What we know:
Its EC number is 1.1.1.23. By secondary structure, this protein is of the alpha/beta class. The chain has helices at residues 22-30, 42-52, 58-72, 74-85, 98-107, 110-128, 166-179, 197-206, 216-225, 242-251, 276-287, 302-316, 322-332, 341-351, 363-366, 384-389, 425-441, 445-455, and strands at residues 2-7, 12-19, 135-139, 142-150, 153-157, 183-187, 210-212, 235-237, 256-257, 265-270, 294-299, 334-337, 355-359, 375-378, 415-423. The protein is 44% helix and 17% strand. A hairpin with a 4-residue loop joins strand 1 (2-7) and strand 2 (12-19).
Amino acid sequence: MSTTGVSEDIGAAVPVRIVHDLDEVRRRLTRRAGFEGARLSARMAEGVRRVFGDDLSAEQVVDRILAEVRAEGDAAVLSYTAALDGAALTADEIEIPGAAWDAALAGLDPTLRDAMATAADSIEAFHRKQLRTSWLDYSDEGTLGQILRPLERIGIYTPTSTAAYPSTLLMTAIPARVAGVEEIIVCAPPSGGAVSPLVLAAARIAGVDRLFQVGGAQAIGAMAFGTETVPRVDKIHGPGNIFVVLAKRRVFGAVAIDSLAGMTETLLVADSSADPGLIAADMLAQAEHDPMASAILLATDAALAASVVGALGEQLADLPRTAIAAESLAANGLVAVVPDVPTALDLANAYAPEHLCLLLADPWAAVPMVRHAGGVFVGEHSPEVLGDYAAGPSHVMPTGATARFSSPVHVGDFTKVISVVAANRRAVARLGPASATLARAEGLVGHARAIERRLAPSSGEPGIMPTAGDQ
């Protein structure tokens, strides 16, 4: 059974369904479209026709842009920046000088500047706790270990669609700086002809090295292949629209990428102790991001579910981004009634949400049941919004069920591991025969002989006879 909630205060149907059928809930939570064959919105499709003169798929658009950026460098970047972002730049204007960052930071309202600084401090403190060091394990057979090295140069894509996201820049650049990355560059689209001053200010606070006003698939191509102005990076981080996501997938191998981040999503689990007004506010905070965002509630109490739908209607009425939030709720929103918390967590694990919020009388009792989530927000005083800005963990988290196998951005994303093997004759004597046997089983005789030569007697010696202290 499913119903549509109605808010008498606004006199219109609230665009979210209350579903009681568990089979339907599970189907809706596990049936998610991937990036392959993603359909463009009407606005995007019209833009493609205007720029390319044809009805191309998102994949075709990305392939064409990447090929041109790889072949033509800055010229292709400038052409697509003019055509897609409406910014007519020269090659000298692709990079934004540091003086502009300083001016943007100085021009911020002091309260906003302090808020960014507070968030930056929290992010840095959280990520410093994750630092690992190289290690070497010495034994009578030699030395084994790992050398940890930061990446030399990383690129961060900072999106600008219907809003600027300086917080995303902080959440990505600061962990990279903590990890010791030598050079951090940022690409951000010149929305409305210029990169948002908020992004410029965030770049200065985060300790970024260079910033380029380039967006879309052309930015991903520029960072992956390098141009006359934009340097090639080792790894690309940051979310974006469908063109950015597909471009990141296409360049993987030429460079590393963090993930294929899709549209943002949140799943709330609540019982009768929860405040319906707070639940509605948390859902709208997610829905207002984008029409493709997902805000989902699994409630163990039918009366609570009904109250939440009513609160959604009331709060939607005066939300500045009402149209976006309403479209998101209508297309991807869900309020479901489930019998108990274990059932809710079972469904949540099947969905593997980016954000999992536990608004329960005893939220910590539910935490051991969590297997798949980008981040867990424990209790009514831990809204996702706190994590979006100032709690400390990066808000760049896995979406689209990829939380089943991937993690939020963390310091380890910006380092690599080099294995160390420094064996001695004792190790060869113990491990060599097994290595040679496995090599011959695989048909790699040359491998086996490389070991056997070290095991065989030589120079009149009776073979390897390890002794104490043989290093």
